[in-house]
Amino acid sequence: MIKPMLCEDGDLSDLKRQGYAAEWKYDGTRVLVIKEKGQVTLQNRNGVNYTRRLPEVVEAAKEIPVNNFVIDTEVVYINPKTEKEEFTPCQRRCSTQDWAKILYLKRKYPITVEAFDLLYVDDDWKATLNPWLKRKSLLADLLDGYEGTIQYVQHRFDLQDYWEEVKQREGEGLILKDIHSRYEHERSYKWLKLKNWRHVVCDVVGFTLGKNSRAWFFGSLVLAKNGKHVGCAGSGPSDWELRQLKDIFSNSAKIPKPFDIGQPYTTVDTNLKVLVKYYQITENGVMRFPVFEKIVA
Question: Which class is domain 198-295?
Answer without folding.
Answer: mainly beta
